[in-house]
């Protein structure tokens, strides 16, 4: 197995036995990144020197007899939504093209404490609004299984980087599916943790009540290791949860015997591609064979999740994006003659069409006379969905579904049809509305394209979720076809 296609926990074992140096690992990844980036465009900025330097430091430490942490010196990519001093943080937007944050985000601060090597900052849909990186102001990333397809979005660059071996792991963010869907499209593991589990400090805000950062990795064990590093209370984020530190690897290795896996009675699989349904059904059979019980649960309001999300998320976005006013940071129109023109022209020139659409939708839904009809009503439906998940988790350990109704779609295929993209979020959005954790784990292939299985867990139930996903991963032992590059 190539070093750049080896999970971090295995590489860590190998280096502890003296079979490989951390510098060799970093050189393999950086070399792979440089060789493939021209075709993939996973990154908006790359930092090979940082990655190699962190690896050298890890080797030195090891030579002095110190015990290394699993992430020390490992080349890891970070979505370009996180503030990292000395790097541009564009959030996929022309508006922030030259923005360099003067401080460090909570997530990358913790990764730095764990000794990671930043290999690059990954491409994304502008302000994380989208499903294929096609809304990036800097052009789309490509799917390493088929270069004519998107890698998913909005954390698509993180996904293509990990799948192609340009980074050993990456961090993404998920507001309505943006970690899980690209993980599914590229055959990797991605987890959206419980809302509040990971700090949002220094992570550019899209919809603050739904945004959550999480790992995107080659396997489930690595996802647990990365979450160990980035989770935890942060007083700088007022919604950060005061949960005690947990070891998310604690239950890896358990089996599926007697575990209760829920399937949603109201889940409309008729909207899904038959190849996706086939993989999902085979995955359920496998869970059963491994001793799990499949139990039907009812979530009667799940059909309203997409509509609810596409009110709440744009409302919060329209408020959050008010800070891009041409005054404080980023784009500033040179021609404006007065303050109003400065606002109008800076926003008009700096923001892309999808972002403008969301601001308009949100501003409309929050305007006087419409607030009760749209935003308030959406919050009520969200509460019902939350309560229905809570009731379901009294009966089951996890809830299974496909991640996305289709495998990766073609670049340009959904251009000009935002509604099609919105509807395709139907399976991922409910977890964000409910605030619960959700993991995407490779479930199979539709031809050459990967298809993920989604498992949802109860609030702060990540340790159990990892153990179930890990057991599934082991049972499936998926043999992947070769990449396109
Ligand atoms: N595709 C969804 C959207 O466009 C989700 C994005 C996300 O999770 N950041 O809003």
TrEMBL record:
InterPro entries xrefs: Amidase, Amidase_CS, Amidase_dom, AS_sf, GatA
Single GO BP term: translation
Molecular function GO labels: ATP binding; glutaminyl-tRNA synthase (glutamine-hydrolyzing) activity; transferase activity
EC assignment: 6.3.5.7
Sequence ranges assigned to domain Amidase in this UniProt record: 24-465
Catalytic residues of the enzyme: 79 (charge relay system), 154 (charge relay system), 178 (acyl-ester intermediate)
Cellular component, GO annotation: glutamyl-tRNA(Gln) amidotransferase complex
Catalytic reaction annotation: L-glutamyl-tRNA(Gln) + L-glutamine + ATP + H2O = L-glutaminyl-tRNA(Gln) + L-glutamate + ADP + phosphate + H(+)
Alphabetically ordered keywords of this record: ATP-binding, Ligase, Nucleotide-binding, Protein biosynthesis, Transferase
Claim: ATP-binding is one of the keywords in the record: yes
Transmembrane segments: none
Task performed by this protein: Allows the formation of correctly charged Gln-tRNA(Gln) through the transamidation of misacylated Glu-tRNA(Gln) in organisms which lack glutaminyl-tRNA synthetase. The reaction takes place in the presence of glutamine and ATP through an activated gamma-phospho-Glu-tRNA(Gln).
Subunit structure as annotated in this protein's UniProt entry: Heterotrimer of A, B and C subunits.
Similarity remark: Belongs to the amidase family. GatA subfamily.
NCBIfam families named among the record's database cross-references: gatA
HAMAP family recorded: GatA
Name used for this protein in its record: Glutamyl-tRNA(Gln) amidotransferase subunit A
Species of provenance: Candidatus Lambdaproteobacteria bacterium RIFOXYD2_FULL_56_26
Gene: gatA
